[in-house]
Amino acid sequence: MPEQISVLVVDDEPVIRAGLSAILDSQADITVAGTADDGEQAVEVCARLRPDVLVMDIRMPRRDGLWALAELGRRGLLGPGRSRVLMLTTFDLDAYVDDALAAGASGFLLKNSSYEELGAAVRAAAAGHSALSPAVTRRIIEGHLSGRRQPSDQELARLRDLTQREVDVLRLIRDGLSNAEIADRLVVSLHTVKTHVSRVLTKTGCQTRAQAAVLARNTLS
């Protein structure tokens, strides 16, 4: 994680943009590098500024946050060494969570999250970790336990090159375990787990652990 985290704030409401910028700029290790008011502008500003994290509303006029997320991925602007995206919304809806995480978002927070949760989520995203509010995490787990749709052929094909140990690691990522917890569960070193996680992300085409967790939820028992 960089010593100083640069953030791009994206929201169509000027008051929300200003409020989020003020909250984040007040953190000693976070700097707001710029703002945007819709998804199209967010992509262009991100390409120019290359921020560590985008804090982006999911519902905006013209081009929304999901469009921007997909376009950032298409342009190769997401992932390790590039930008991470933290989705922010007032709508706690399963479809948005799945779509955002499957498209490569590092986290998903509700707009009524505390200042502390917002700062912690930005730091987690910058460090390459998943950042989900407790409410969203509960809904993902409940959705998995209550049944899921049949996986598509494309989703199953993304698992084809995984070794059995990598499948085990992917399953534990889905269950929300950290690298240290996975190491304890599998009785291997932390370095070995990091290697497995990196290979899982590369082989499945996932850019974040959250994206891998959604894939695993839809494909693994």
Description:
It contains eleven helices and six strands. The protein has helices at residues 14-25, 39-49, 65-74, 94-102, 115-126, 134-145, 153-157, 164-174, 179-186, 190-204, 209-219, and strands spanning 5-10, 30-36, 53-57, 84-89, 107-110, 131-132. A six-stranded parallel sheet has the order 2-1-3-4-5-6, with helices on both faces. Helix 2 (39-49) runs parallel beside helix 3 (65-74), helix 8 packs across helix 10 (190-204) and helix 8 (164-174) crosses helix 11. The longest helix is centred in the last third of the chain and has 15 residues, at 190-204. The model has no long low-confidence stretch (mean pLDDT 86).
Keywords:
single chain; 221 residues; alpha/beta; 6-stranded parallel sheet; 11 helices; 6 strands; 14% strand; CheY-like_superfamily; NreC/VraR/RcsB-like_REC; transcription regulation; transcription; phosphoprotein
- Low-confidence parts lasting 5 or more residues at pLDDT below 50? none
How many strand units? 6
Structural class: alpha/beta
Shape: globular
Number of helices, counting only DSSP H or I runs of 4 residues or more: 11
Order of helices and strands: EHEHEHEHEHEHHHHHH
In this structure, how is the largest beta sheet organized?
A: 6 strands, parallel
Distance N terminus to C terminus? 33 Å
- Work out the radius of gyration: 17 Å
As a percent range, the share of strand residues is 5-15%
Order of strands across the biggest sheet? 2-1-3-4-5-6
Percent of residues in helical segments?
40-55%
Provide mean pLDDT, rounded.
Answer: 86
Organism: Streptomyces anthocyanicus
Protein name: Response regulator transcription factor
Modified residues (4-aspartylphosphate): 57
Keywords: DNA-binding, Phosphoprotein, Transcription, Transcription regulation
